[in-house]
Amino acid sequence: MTNSSELNIIDVKGIVKSFKRTPVLQNVNWSVKPGQFWGIIGPNGSGKTTLLNLISGVEQPDRGEISFGGKALTSYGRKELSRRLAVLQQDGLPSVPFPVRDVIQMGRFPFQDWRGKETDENAEQLLEEIMEKLELKELGNRPLSVLSGGQRQRVALGKVMAQQPEVVLLDEPTTYLDIRYQMRFMELVSSWQREEGLTVIAVMHDLNLAALFCDRLLVLQEGNIVAEGTPDEIMSSETMEKVFEVKTHVINHPDVGAPQLLLKTEKRSIVNE
Q1: Is residue 216 within 8 Å of 8, Cβ to Cβ?
Q2: Exposed site from 108, 124, 201, 216, fewest CB < 10 Å?
Q3: Percentage helix, strand, coil, to 5, in the chain?
Q4: Domain residue spans in the chain?
Q5: d(CA 204, CA 42)
Q6: Helix or strand or coil: residue 87?
Q7: Which CATH class is domain 5-234?
Q8: Per-residue pLDDT for 123 more than 80?
Q9: pLDDT for position 6
Q10: Structure confidence at residue 5 as a pLDDT band (50, 70, 90)
Q11: What is the pTM of this model?
């Protein structure tokens, strides 16, 4: 398979980024093909969110270049880029009093004219389909401020879906969710990704979730790429000890076969009182 940049939707070439003279990313080279689901993993402070911010255009590199769809990222206007790329931050949406449906509709901003009028006659149908898919129809008129964290994160996903992007960037999207909502959220993203052929790049802290839902993993450590590959290639006890400094057992998930980590610990005796 050729690695021609013409087949890549994102190319990161020689990226260097520092904050207050502290190196955060050092000569990072990476490419993403359309339709892939990447998880970016690594210890705290390894540069994961910074890399995501550079790809989204929020931050600018000190050196190097990022290309999107074969064009320099810097050549895109903000609205043009928003039609093709969407970002969902870890805190999703603030607890504001706007109705759920209005918040989701805000995702249509890239497709509005200078008067704020929608340019796609099928937009209303799209919004209805999104709310149906995310089980939000009954919450449509409720203010965001009365929803649970899991519900708000689904609304945030709906707003991103309304953008109809080609690429979705997720920054630790399940951080504040309990285990049920974590699984539900990732299942929704995975279903959307498969149905639309989306490219998804997600910064993930939960390595087991990353292995379940991502088809490729990028491992950062101290601002450098130390490994990239499939979960089966990356999720080894040796790599986990080298990168995260923890000892692990690696087992295969009984349902889907994806590698899962168990942390090694000293055996403890149980005293019955």
Answers
A1: no
A2: 124
A3: 35, 25, 35
A4: 5-234
A5: 8
A6: strand
A7: alpha beta
A8: yes
A9: 54
A10: very low
A11: 0.91
